[in-house]
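REQUEST ID: PR-0412
SUBMITTED BY: lab tech R.K.
PRIORITY: routine
TASK: structure prediction, single protein chain
INPUT:
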Amino acid sequence: MKIIAVHAYTVRNKTAVPFVWRKGLPGSDEFNEQTWLRLVTDAGIEGWSCAVRGPIALDLIERRLKPMLLGKNPLMKELIWHEVWELDRIEEFPIYMMGVVDAALWDITAKAANLPLYQLLGGYRDSIEAYASTVTYSTTEEFLDVADQCLARGFKAIKLHAWGDARKDAALCQALRKHVGPDIALMYDGSAGFDPYESLYLGRALEEADYLWYEEPMREFSINAYRRLCEQLDIPVLAAETSDGCHYNVADFIAQGAADMVRTSWFYKGGLTGALRVAHLADSFQLSAEVHGMGVENVHLCLAIKNNHYYETLVMGNPVQFEARIGPHAHVRAPEAPGLGYDVDVKTVEKIAVAKL
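STATUS: complete
OUTPUT:
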């Protein structure tokens, strides 16, 4: 089997549900741009994946990835993964671009095997519980209202993205625990908004409120700062989410005692190949590798590995809008179609694309 054509289509849509993040981070843009990657093989099987930051993705596909992919056997995913890694040395790919090719190759491989991808990746379960991952709301009262809507929808786990103010966030986290009671799993994501002193203060408040984990309180360029924080807190610190270097870097976090749990995802860890490496590395140390983010690629990843416990789904707006794939009791079921399960109409994508190759 060979790749005989590489296409890319950038599409632009108005953001349906605007949202904000903590102070210092931009929220949603007015328009959302994505680039679809389409790999065509001489066997008639096509592989699809989707990249954010549409114009950047289109440029990199055209200049670097398309020339490298043409004529390659798409089943040689390990070889191509390392070739993309080599190109990164020159191009310094954005972290979200490292896995775009890999996901499309896995789509082809699973279609060739006539299997949904999660089974090909390992197949640990066929459904998984989701947790509601909030955007940032204006007041404590609004957060509590959103939490009630999530509980009414069947969620038993909620993660906060709050304001980026250690004292205000600590008070919010404790108020939420008091509001929902002891039986709801709660998590907090700092989105790398704090220095080591603020991180320690907030972490102790989360311990008092019996939170399940404390995610990415600081930027991840200082492994030593994370090591000190892990030593000072009892709550599990979840780290290595956006750090460059895939499993190579995650290994340093683990070896240095700088993470009690680690993040994995197709989006930030070099596609599904890299995400599996991180998950299996963490498993060898008996650590959780919690999957970051939503989307069909991460559904398959969640279902394929043992040491992940939830599917993360972003909840936005008020009244809250929930992802369509969230089923009864806030569970996500396995896709049944071969491959990733994308159902893309080529003619429609070609028609609406604002740029393509």
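NOTES: Residues 54-69 form the longest helix (16 residues).
REVIEWED BY: pending
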